[in-house]
Design a protein that fits this description.
The complex is a heterodimer. Chain A is mainly alpha-helical. Chain A contains four helices and four strands. The relative contact order of chain A is 0.19. The chains are: A mainly alpha, B mainly alpha. At the A-B interface, helix 3 and helix 4 of A face helix 3, helix 4 and helix 5 of B.
Chain lengths: 184, 180
């Protein structure tokens, strides 16, 4: 598995575009602090699809970091900061989709991920999370000619790359960097 | 004896004086021709020719990014040569920059196949400050400057190229973290 995938719950819920079943998330539809208000941005269908995938990746990251933090107490501060960053990015992306008259995907109640039993596996999951987010944001850059959207997507790509490096440095993993974040 | 001039070759001579309108018309025409750069009394050798030169081809931003990458690669190698204890920290970054250079040259060659000005060879040497304590700050500043250059170039590049430049910019952001 290369990415956390939504897991169908046994209870009721709405079906997400990705095929999983999702829960109602009250935060959806809100605009992140600092995001431009009011102006409806024109989004191409290609950009909408890429942004929806990026939103799903951020939502999976939010869920997975709760699991990671439970098994990696030494990284608790860094993980809390990273999770806050993903939360802000998710909200900003949802706001962008809503302003562009597109549907924002809702979060799944849980995701099927690789087994996490200790610090090592928890850190491995964080690598998977950030790799998926970086891939998603890189795809957004390739989906648009808008300089503004590209810049926003680069912020998402850079943040994921930096967070991955931060966690690798904390885990004393070498090399801590990769030449092409989001490159697959 | 009365001398009659008789009819001329074009009929009877017209003795009417030249009218004011004709004089003004002739003067106006001459002025118009003169202002237009035409000299009805000149020779063809004095004609001014206007030649429009073809504009220079637009500079490809990739060349500047390739040059920047080469310079920073040389600085990383100079830093490694100056202080062996930095090998663990700088070697992965140098390898990343080498990969960037190869990708940039490949992309430039793809879009400008006739050009032979870009290659991955880094010639020459760069001297860093003799104070080894300044090596890391220098390399970190290089990473920050390059990140800005790649970010700026990314916004106006083609989609395919923008993805590459953005990925390199993100990598340079991680270099700054690794060097802090």
């Amino acid at each position: 598995m290369t990415s956390p995938t939504p897991t169908p719950p046994t209870g009721s819920g709405a079906t997400s575009p990705a095929g999983g079943t999702v829960a109602r998330t009250p935060a959806l539809g809100t605009t992140a602090p600092g995001a431009p208000q009011g102006a409806a941005e024109k989004l191409t269908p290609e950009s909408v699809k890429a942004l929806q995938l990026a939103t799903s990746a951020e939502q999976a990251a939010l869920w997975a970091y709760d699991l990671v933090s439970a098994y990696s107490p030494a990284d608790a501060d860094a993980i809390a900061a990273i999770r806050s960053g993903h939360l802000a990015r998710r909200d900003d992306t949802v706001g962008r989709l809503v302003r562009g008259k597109a549907t924002a995907p809702a979060a799944a109640p849980w995701y099927s991920v690789q087994p996490v039993t200790d610090v090592r596996s928890a850190r491995q999951l964080s690598v998977t999370i950030e790799t998926d987010c970086a891939n998603a944001w890189r795809a957004v850059i390739g989906s648009t000619d808008s300089a503004e959207l590209r810049t926003a997507a680069l912020a998402g790509l850079s943040d994921s790359a930096v967070w991955l490096t931060t966690l690798k440095i904390a885990a004393k993993t070498s090399p801590p960097t990769i030449p092409f974040p989001g490159g697959g | 004896m009365h001398l009659d001039p008789g009819p001329g070759p074009f009929g009877p001579r017209d003795r009417r004086p030249v009218g004011r309108r004709s004089v003004l018309l002739a003067a106006g025409s001459a002025a118009l021709l003169a202002s237009a750069g035409c000299n009805p009394f000149g020779t063809s050798a004095k004609t001014t020719l206007t030649v429009t030169a073809a504009p220079a081809p637009p500079a490809d931003q990739m060349l500047s990014l390739i040059a920047t990458t080469k310079l920073h690669l040389l600085r990383l190698e100079a830093g490694l040569a100056a202080d062996k204890s930095l090998a663990a920290k700088l070697t992965p970054l140098r390898d990343d920059r080498k990969a960037h250079l190869a990708a940039l040259v490949k992309e430039y060659s793809r879009t400008a196949p006739g050009q032979k000005t870009a290659n991955t060879a880094t010639t020459g040497t760069v001297k860093l400050s003799p104070d080894v304590a300044l090596i890391i700050p220098t390399v970190r500043t290089d990473a920050a400057n390059a990140q800005g250059a790649f970010t700026d170039a990314m916004t106006s590049a083609s989609r395919y190229r923008a993805v590459l430049l953005a990925s390199i910019a993100a990598c340079l952001a991680t270099h700054r973290i690794a060097l802090s």
